[in-house]
Each structure stands twice: as structure tokens, then as C-alpha cells.
């Protein structure tokens, strides 16, 4: 417990040191290049007080949720299919790698051309970015199940679906959740990339607008909002994972 508090205090100290360094560097440079933390904080307060940020935050969050939901579902489904079938893995692996080797920002304009400048294009970009990490994690988790456990399930004549649901997915949960955490962070990146290319609303569009107005403080304020959203989403996934582990441990205790 003592080491845990020491780690938290050290982390807090690093944050304070960063703010002090930021303040010092900002005073050496023009406000157009680097505004001070106080100026950025005032911009944040003003934006929330006037309700300026809320429509942009809601738009970005909607794109993130829809893109993450679509990409996560497809990633989990395809990961299970590939993990369960060596044939499918050999057939589709090359194409999946090719789809991920292409920089998303390079094909984002094509998505805008195909799907328009509405929310659909941003959702597709976000889903594509979220798909691969969860698919890879799921396939890896399913293929790394203990052979002894698989043999036990064969002895009790469990079906393939029962083996997947009661053995492979639960035992592979830590690896799958690693893919979920990466997908969650990537979903925010995907939404912002889509908004960079073409959007009138959203935090990415707000960054582009602040650049055009030479409002560096607003740009930093938006970055702070993105950091907070990213941390909140990451924390939520950790909480869900802890809940799943707690329920699993409770089931094992009840069986005993």
C-alpha cells in the first residue's frame, strides 16, 4: 500500500513538474506559439461556461461510440473465426495486414468521397482503425488456450461452441482486453482523423478551426479535452475488466 501511494505521489510530482516547465517555456515564447497553462485553463472555463464545447464533444463521442462498436464487433467476430479456423487464417491474414498497412489518413479522403462528409465516413474510419487490434488479440487469445484444458473439454464431450464460450474466451480474456484497450484509444484517433479531413463539428474540426484563427490557446484547450476523454475511456475499460474478473472469481468460489 505504501509503495502504491509513493507511485501516485511521484506521478503527481511529474505532472506538476511538467506544468512548471510548460509555464517557463511559454514565457520565453510568443503566445501564438505556446500559451501558458493559465491561459489554456481560462479558455477551457470560458468555452464550457458559454456551452461552446458541448456540441463538438457530443459529435466526437458519437463517432467514437459508433465506430468502436462496429469495429469492436467485427474485430471480435473475425478474430474468433480466424482463431477457430487455421484455413480462414491463411486465407484472410494477408488481406487484413494489407488493410492495416495503408495509413488511414491517406485513405480518409476516399472515405469522404464514398460516404460523404457526414458522420458515416468518420464512423467507418474509426471502425477500421479499431478493428485490427481487437481482431489480432482475439485470434491470439483463442489459439493460446492450454492443450490440457482442451483435452479435458473433449473428454466431457463439450461442443465447439461450448468450448469457445466456457474455455477459450474466458481464459483469453486478459489478451482480449489488451486489444480492447488499444481499440478504445484508437477510436478517438480515428474520429479526430476523420474530422481533420472534413467536418463542421467535432473536436477535430475545432482544432482545424482554431488553427485557421491562430487561436493556439483554443487548440491546446481542445487537446486537454481529448486527453481527459481518452483517460476516462481507458479507466472505464479497466473498471469493466476488473468487474469481469471479480465475477469470474466469484463463480470459481461458488463452485468450490
Automatic annotation (TrEMBL):
GO terms for cellular component: plasma membrane. It is found in: Cell membrane. CDD domains: TM_PBP2. It is a multi-pass membrane protein. Residues 57-237 form the ABC transmembrane type-1 domain. It comes from the Bacteria. The keyword Transport applies. InterPro entries: MetI-like, MetI-like_sf. Keywords: Cell membrane, Membrane, Transmembrane, Transmembrane helix, Transport. One of its GO terms (biological process) is transmembrane transport. The chain crosses the membrane at residues 50-83, 95-117, 123-142, 179-197, 217-240. Belongs to the binding-protein-dependent transport system permease family. This is ABC transporter permease. It comes from Aerococcus christensenii.
